[in-house]
């Protein structure tokens, strides 16, 4: 396999993981807004969102199904712990219940990876700051996400810093 071909394959896997993280945030948001279970929302995403043309370019964005399921399942399983870590990363007068529901979904998805995966914290932070940028391209939210996730990562995995 040529070097260019290997790079393309690596880039494709990275794009799939990034797409899965974005989808996971959307799914967690949908779960909170609709009151649906993680299984019901996951099936909808896998059937109707993965590989569906996105945006003006019509590109097919495929995700890593296993990563998507792991993030959504672990976000639900560890929600209390993740929310407590998030609260400690927020300003005292702004508990997680008062922040934007999209940001809650970002923190829960990222938190699930911080507490239950081998992915390096800096990669997790970078990926979810990019997700925040996708939802808030003109706002200060990506910087806010970066600061809170840095705090959460240092709590969840102090040995990585």
Features:
mainly alpha, two-stranded antiparallel ribbon, globular, 161 residues, 7 helices
What are the SSEs and their pairings?
Layout: H1 3-34, H2 38-48, E1 53-54, E2 59-60, H3 65-77, H4 79-89, H5 101-116, H6 121-135, H7 141-156
Helix pairs in contact: 1-2, 1-3, 1-5, 2-3, 3-5, 4-5, 4-7, 5-6, 5-7, 6-7
Overview of the structural elements:
- The structure is a single chain.
- By secondary structure, the chain is mostly helical.
- The protein has seven helices and two strands.
- The chain has a two-stranded antiparallel ribbon with strand order 1-2.
- A hairpin with a 4-residue loop joins β1 and β2 (59-60).
- The chain is globular.
- The mean pLDDT is 90.
Summarize the structure.
The chain has helices at residues 3-34, 38-48, 65-77, 79-89, 101-116, 121-135, 141-156; strands at 53-54, 59-60. The protein is mainly alpha-helical and 161 residues long. The chain has a two-stranded antiparallel sheet.
Mean pLDDT: 90
Number of strands: 2
Low-confidence segments, ≥5 residues, pLDDT <50?
none
What fraction of the residues are assigned to beta strands by DSSP? under 5%
Number of helices: 7
- Strand arrangement across the biggest beta sheet: 1-2
Summarize the main sheet: 2 strands, antiparallel
In which range does the helix fraction lie? over 70%
Q: State the separation between the terminal residues, measured CA to CA.
A: 36 Å
Name the overall outline: globular
* Structure classification: mainly alpha
Radius of gyration: 16 Å
N-to-C order of helices and strands: HHEEHHHHH
